[in-house]
Design a protein that fits this description.
This protein is about 70% helix and about 0% strand. The protein contains eleven helices and no strands.
């Protein structure tokens, strides 16, 4: 699996995609930093991560995941993937962790803003770390759905649209307190941005991630048998 992670991670930065995604993250983060920290003279970074998760993470995830499996099908290289001695689970998880690593690079770079805020006060490192933990868990859930969307179509554009619509839907629709409320993944991130680690939110995000990854593995295995 490590070989796949390494290959996928490098391929992201061998193309402009990786740099565009990092730049997009930093531009959105910088804009929110100006609004929430500079204008309001606040040393709280949690609201900036929350804002980035709403306005930036869905787009970043869609861009990073859309080619994961759709590109293999459109270029007829999927059979080479199936002939690989590595297991389907290793292939899926390799792609998953490679994309998560790219987002991880962006999060590491975001610590620059923590250093900048040290000139104005002392930001709560505990709050920042808890918020980042939530951001990572949310990213995992988003990535898993993006991989699922990419696995069911050979069009990267369609995969990106499906991912964006699903991840942005909570901004325009209310699901109430029923079972469909779990479709609003961003709601599971709110407590983290407040410095609270809740078992319900952690389990909710991890369960969604596992469910989507499992579906991807099933879809790829079925297509492997048919091919």
């Amino acid at each position: 699996m490590w070989a796949i992670i390494k290959k996928e991670f490098k391929s992201t930065f061998f193309s402009p995609v990786g740099y565009i995604v990092i730049a997009m993250f930093l531009i959105i983060f910088s804009a929110l930093f100006y609004v929430f920290s500079i204008n309001n003279r606040s040393v709280d970074l949690s609201s900036i991560y929350y804002g980035t998760s709403i306005y930036g993470l869905p787009i970043i995830t869609a861009v990073l995941t859309m080619k994961s499996f759709a590109e293999e099908r459109s270029k007829d290289t999927e059979q080479l993937l199936f002939m690989s001695p590595r297991s389907t689970v290793s292939i899926v998880m390799g792609k998953f962790f490679a994309i998560l690593a790219v987002i991880g690079v962006a999060l590491v770079l975001s610590f620059i803003y923590y250093v900048l805020l040290l000139q104005c006060g002392i930001p709560s490192i505990k709050l920042v770390l808890i918020t980042i933990l939530g951001f990572i868990l949310l990213s995992m859930a988003y990535i898993s759905f993006g991989l699922l969307a990419s696995s069911i179509t050979e069009s990267q554009v369609i995969a990106a649209i499906i991912t964006l619509v699903f991840l942005m839907l909570p901004l325009f629709a209310s699901f109430g307190d029923g079972i469909f409320s779990y479709l609003s993944l961003i709601d599971l991130f709110i407590k983290f941005s407040s410095g609270v680690i809740s078992a319900k939110e952690v389990i909710g995000l991890l369960s969604f991630t596992v469910m989507c990854i499992t579906l991807v593995v099933i879809i790829i295995k079925r297509r492997k048998k048919e091919g």
